[in-house]
């Protein structure tokens, strides 16, 4: 069945009162406790919804103390990284010009699809601080594209043509830290495709820094099984054309 994008209307106030956003009783209780604890330390807690607090709880296996520390650190980070509420494209013009990140379509679970093209990233021609802002810009754009009721996204990391000139261990670790610490439980699945053998040298350095929950979401796909594997989760009408689908790649700044 074709997975067409549809505009979702927000729930009315009455609907929000009668239908709990969090159905699980234990999670709902822990969200309430965590919200009260965090609100005492940072009033900006009031500005986030229960689903965000639940994501931080899930990232710490429902441990309220650990999740609260993680969440409060996030609020501090957000004030520093996103003082305007967004990353202006003028601040990341160099990274955007390489069209290294694309986004289009949704998978069969309505999760937006992002495609990172590894051989378009050249750290010698970039700036580490700009790249960090570019990562945040990307994650904010992806999250904004999620339909109501969906909290996760799917990513395809394409390493075709990747070489040592593209290797950026510091950048990869910074991106990983941002994803795990500031956007927990947002990644639904990461397909790594066309990975050359030399990439495994970098992967061995990165792997120990990936938390257990994130590791479960990463899949290396063999070239000969690429299209069939992606089609298990993504309808042909929503799959990028370079992988046998129907949609052309669209740079994320043009979405």
Automatic annotation (TrEMBL):
It comes from the Eukaryota. Residues 89-251 form the CRAL-TRIO domain. Pfam families: CRAL_TRIO. InterPro entries: CRAL-TRIO_dom, CRAL/TRIO_N_dom. This is CRAL-TRIO lipid binding domain.
């Amino acid at each position: 069945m074709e997975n067409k994008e549809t505009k979702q209307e927000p729930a009315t106030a009455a609907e929000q009162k009668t239908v709990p956003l969090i159905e699980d009783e234990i999670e709902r209780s822990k969200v309430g406790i965590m919200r009260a604890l965090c609100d005492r330390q940072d009033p900006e807690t009031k500005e986030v919804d229960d689903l965000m607090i639940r994501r931080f709880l899930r990232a710490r296996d429902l441990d309220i103390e650990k999740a609260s520390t993680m969440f409060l650190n996030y609020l501090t980070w957000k004030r520093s990284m996103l003082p305007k509420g967004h990353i202006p494209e003028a601040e990341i013009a160099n990274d955007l010009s390489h069209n290294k990140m694309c986004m289009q379509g949704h998978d069969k679970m309505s999760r937006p699809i992002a495609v990172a093209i590894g051989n378009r990233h050249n750290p010698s021609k970039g700036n580490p601080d700009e790249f960090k802002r570019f990562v945040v810009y990307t994650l904010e754009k992806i999250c904004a594209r999620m339909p109501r009721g969906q909290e996760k996204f799917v990513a395809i990391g394409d390493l075709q043509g990747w070489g040592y000139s593209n290797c950026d261990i510091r950048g990869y670790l910074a991106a990983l830290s941002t994803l795990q610490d500031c956007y927990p439980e947002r990644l639904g699945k990461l397909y790594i495709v066309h990975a050359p053998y030399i990439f495994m040298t970098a992967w061995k350095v990165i792997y120990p820094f990936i938390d257990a929950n994130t590791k479960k979401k990463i899949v290396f796909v063999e070239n000969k099984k690429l299209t069939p594997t992606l089609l298990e989760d993504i309808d042909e009408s929503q799959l990028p054309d370079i992988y046998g689908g129907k949609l052309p790649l669209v740079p994320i700044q043009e979405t």
